[in-house]
Amino acid sequence: MHVLAAGLEPLLIARWQFGITTVYHFLMVPLTIGLGPVIVYLQSRWHRTGDERFYRATKFWGKLYLINFIMGVATGIVQEFQFGLAWSEYSRFVGDVFGAPLAMEALLAFFLESTFLGLWIFGWGRLPKGLHLTTLILAIFGSVISAYFIIVANSWMQHPVGVELVNGRPIMNDIWAVLGNNTAIWAFLHTLVGSFAVSGAFLLGISWYQLWRRRRDGIDTIGPDNKVIVGENPAIPGRDKADHALWLHSLRLGAVIAVVAFGLLTITGDQQGKLMFQQQPMKMAAAEAACDTTTDISLLSFGAWNTKDCHTVTGVIEVPGVLSFLANGNFSTPVQGLNQLVPEYQQKYGTTVPNDPSTYGAAAGKTISYVPIMPVTYWGFRLMITFGALSAIASLVALWLTRRGTVPQAKWLMVLAVVGILAPFAGDSAGWVFTEMGRQPFIVAPNPTGVDGVFMFTAAAVSPGVSAGMLLFSLIALGSVYLALLVVELVLLFRYVRGGVASAIPELKNPPGPDSSGKAPDDVLAFAY
């Protein structure tokens, strides 16, 4: 391990470790946040109408929700341990600020999630219907406010507020300013609607696959009037008319959610962008490959992969005035470019890293590059938008193709629908990578209108007593564990998706027992497992 770590800096390994584990964990987060309210809606419809398809939909999507939730908890626990393992200096710097929101997340939000989700799992057929639904609502509410407290902490790193500087450390003096940080509010709303986009694609892709299987197996056909003829196959548990209604409703519901979510993403994203132009102008200039002050936006540029010489960037497709609109809400106010911003940053924060190897390691005394890695910011920004738009367009196409009451029989369309599940996941991940990487070289970005000195270079945040070999070992160990968890999650998801609704509802395979829920009295774990 020591040989492998030779020549590698602890900072680089620590950043790779945190990036890999965080991006993987975040794949579970939007699906949990976005799918939960959908299940609340489905269970509410079942309570009001008694329609069998809503009962089945609640059970099936609830099963997948639980698998994803459990994996999210397992992978999320590691995130906080990493603060002490690899980022102790960072933890000391932000500890007085992060303590409150992270404690609220753990004591309030996670308590709601775990307690009431457990009651929902074991309460089928045992709690009154209204109370049972309430437990799910409270669990979902816990997930949402948990996300808010985490985003509050992250947004403080993007835009520190509500603090005073005491002996070189920020001390919180206004918790309401921290909780009401405008950066946090818009980031939370953007994350929330992005989560709905993920859940919409998830519903659409899996439902398309199930309807396609019904077409493949000859259960559903298209009649002379080009309308679906819904069939049944008694030999396969659950393959009846209610099964068709479940998948068609889920598909079209997912498509509508995805389209509406993309519309809301453009609104919340625009507000986030305007804040970034004010709070982190360097990040947004790099995202647009704006080397010099301009009003024009670059839809496509060549040379944006060069991280050292901004003059190699050549605009190919530019739209006049749009960059000014994104930043200021008008088409004429110029936006500063990288070449103008760099001298300002150097004047405010220095041209070189302080020559203190005990704090800054190998970075001590080196020239600071305030320009983020342009391939990450420029293309990450565009991939985020592109994947979101593709998902919305695909959803509109799906609504049109399913107007006959089922999906086309073409296998390639089914494959596209299933693969399309990944599009909003990729868009969300690209957006977070852009947000975090665009902040560099700061781990806590300075607030242009805030308290002077409340910022921290990433090079100063790494634990001083942790060697490159130790970090490399933890990177490989955690990477291996996460890879194993990924395999487990995919196997479970594939298993239950292929099994259809019968995989989530034991009574479809076995004769109903005396319990009104259709389960034997001692079958308390049937829904959970």
Structure description:
With 529 residues, this protein is mainly α. The chain has one domain. 64% of the residues lie in helices and 5% in strands. A two-stranded antiparallel sheet has the order 1-2. A two-stranded antiparallel sheet has the order 3-4. It has a two-stranded antiparallel sheet with strand order 5-6. A hairpin with a 2-residue loop joins strand 1 and strand 2. The longest helix has 40 residues. The relative contact order is 0.14.
Task: Provide the descriptors you would attach to this structure in a database record.
529 residues, mainly alpha, two-stranded antiparallel sheet, 5% strand, disordered N terminus
Coarse shape:
globular
> What Rg, in angstroms, do the CA atoms define?
25 Å
- The number of distinct helices, counting runs of at least 4 residues, comes to 16
Strand order of the largest sheet: 1-2
* SS elements, strand count: 8
Q: What percent of the residues sit in helical stretches (DSSP H or I)? A: 55-70%
| Element string (H = helix, E = strand) | HHHHHEEHHEEHHEEHHHHHHEEH
Average residue-wise pLDDT: 82
Structural class: mainly alpha
How would a textbook summarize the main sheet? 2 strands, antiparallel
Number of domains: 1
